[in-house]
Amino acid sequence: MKDQKIGRLAMRVDGTFWNAYYAMPDTLDGAILIGSIAMRFVENKARKNLFMALMKEAVSDLIEETTGTRPEWPEGAKPAPEHERGGNA
Predict the structure, then answer these.
(1) CB of 1 within 8 A of CB of 14?
(2) Per-residue model confidence as pLDDT tens digits over 16-37
(3) Per residue in 50-84, pLDDT tens?
């Protein structure tokens, strides 16, 4: 299962909230909201990184529950696919 994409963590700004979704590799259709935090709390880089780490752990739990294998995360964040980008993506 090495390098197989079975889902991803997608972070999106929605108004005054930053939402975390578990989504399939190339679409947000059917994405599952797993967490949300007010933007004012993640303006601080350390808190933003903590929230992202928590959401990665949540997605890892979902994937492990389904596949029996805990995923490996690539270094650094990747930009959203072009077709998902908007003013706040």
Answers:
(1) no
(2) 999 999 998 888 999 999 999 9
(3) 999 999 999 999 889 988 989 888 776 676 667 66
Give domain status of residue 2, yes or no: no
For the chain, the domain total comes to: 1
Taking the C-alpha atoms of residue 65 and residue 31, their distance in angstroms, rounded to an integer, is 17
Q: How is 5-58 classified by DSSP, letter by letter? A: ---EEEEEEETTEEEEEEEETTEEEEEEEEEEEEGGGSSSHHHHHHHHHHHHHH
Q: Which residues have CB under 8 Å from 71's CB, separation 6+?
A: 6, 59, 60, 63, 64
* Burial zone of 9 (CB within 10 Å; 0-12 exposed, 13-18 middle, 19+ buried): buried
